[in-house]
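Let's practice the habit of predicting before peeking. Look at the sequence and jot down your guess about where helices and strands might fall. Then scroll down.
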Amino acid sequence: MSRPRPQHLPALLVAFACLAGPGACLKVPEDESHEPAANGEAPATAEAALARYVAAIGGEEALRKLEHRTMEARMVIKPAEGCEEDDPQCPTEEQQGSFLLQKAKGPKLYRRTVVGNFVEERGFDGARSWQHVAGQLGLDDPELTAISREDAVLHWYFDLPARGVKLTLEPSREQDSEGAAVVLDGVRWQVESMPKATKTMWFARESGLLHEERMEVSDEDGQTASQVMLYSDYRDVDGVKVPFQIRMINKLGDYSQEIVFQTQRIDHKQIADATFAVPDVPPPEPLDDPGMAALVAAREAAKAAPRDRDAQLELARVAWLNAFFDEAGAAAERTLKLDGKEVEALWILARLRVMEGRGRDAQKLLDRAGQNGIEPGLVAAQEVWLHSHALEFREVADALERASPNNAPLAGRFRNLTGDPLATRFPKGVCQTEIALQGKTPLAVFDIELDGQTVPAVLDTAATDIIIDAALAKAAKVVIRSRTPINQDGDEMGHGQVKELTIGDAVISDVPVDVLPDGAMDTLPGENPPRAVLGVRALERLLVAIDMPARVLTIGDPDKRCKNKTRELREGASVPFWIHETHFLYVRAELNDAPGLYWINTGMRGVAVAANSRAYAYAGIPAPLSPSPQGVALVDVASIGIPGAFTLADQKGAHGYFAQESTSDHFRVDGMIGLGLLGARKWTIDFPGRRFYFADAAQPAPKDRGE
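Done guessing? Here is the structure:
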């Protein structure tokens, strides 16, 4: 593991570095005991030590006349010590840069650091603390804002009670941190609102000047990071003394690095307020997507060499990784025509057929892939998903055990299922049934019946099975056959079956259910909050139409005898979707024209999309200015849509909520979309056909973007 670097030091320690050097003034109390002690005498109080410092740098009257300060310095970043040889980011050569600090009464602050091509700006405008790095502008959280407010104080030793500063006199020392002989009087500095930012200042008794400052912060692992500031070369500027050299030494474990600030200019001229204001930064240009660039190159190479197996295979590989599935499948088929035993092409095509729900084709391809070298455990894992979608649960159990002996408990759960799990029936002559959706909720919430218990349920494609709490399970006479730990507090999820699930006129038998502890469902929204979550597996043999504007859910029978009666559910623009693993529904979408693969999550509310940071960058959407305490914030999305179906403008996205970038089968995933986007119109999930239909979109069914 690499040694910690300066950017890895605790944020409070780094943020509180007083890089400008001491510059101003404490309001000296009138109490006689706080008067400056004569040189050579130890101060009686911490206040007396600061009073001596104020006198040494020019006195209160001269200092209070100064309301602005600009400091420019040359930075020398010395090679770090304690680095491991294999750490490419640990600085091993000296670097130079520049540093600008400006402060004004207010307090206000502007700070700019330049090292090579790296530029960092930070500021405090009197209310907001901000940072601008690598083209990204952000507002600090309340903790860092409080630190910036304190750091912005020009005369930091004035008006301490108003800022909640508490001083304590420390025992004197006769050496500084580098072993030089000097008598130092210590003052411990604590800010009530920032206990982690406590530091100790050491003043030279002979001169009264600040000689050294030390701050330590411990992390959760017990490691202590320290920062020592050494001040020297005091010079007169406009009647006050200012240090022209500051050395900052950061340490963490064996790691150590020194940065020297050599002041080039200090003045006290007036600084315009605009200097401190949050900058108006234009939105960033969309980041180039290397995956798309690789796909374009692979397409061109495959087109130029249609009989070249390797060129076709490369296109299949790159298209798969970038989730252009139809294109990946077509290229894999071309590869197999040139070489019927090409194992990677077989493996790509087999996994695609599993996600498309083409069970027989998938099984044949999986068998061929296994015969040509794919590990049996990997083949068995795909067979788990294959049989899960076919609702063949004993076969699921067998495949789980072939995939890994560690799957025995999970396999047992599937073997414990009784009856005909998830068999669906409609009354004679009935091909579809309508159920009213609750109003005043952004989710698809409707009534279901579980063995005689009528309860509201939410349709959530982020779930596999039905989820209920223990109280409902007891009322519905659910027999718990196995349990799984869900946290370190000892809570468990139970697993059982409900004899019948009724949705409108549709009856689903022997339904697997997961049972959570009581209270686990209490956070779900709605005027009558859901008591059950309806996942994907119970609906995989059905047509499901969600009409949020009309507040109607329609369940349709896909049987051939109902083809004419359910035709309306399959009208409008049509696009393919894919089911990965047990229940993840994926569709291609475009975020500000940036293509990607998005997971359908009907349980997500409040936004149209939650993308990962990479997808937002490809779409030219900057990170939010103000992070929330949970790290999630809203961003403006110019457009989000499903190619060939519809696009919505001026939407909101969640930034920081979705971090996943790829799946277990290594194809990319860019984010989630939910009813905030899909709920703008009636849309149908055709599970057997693996297609979405959007009723009010008149475009013809699109081809995959890769075709």
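How did you do? The longest helix spans residues 290-304.
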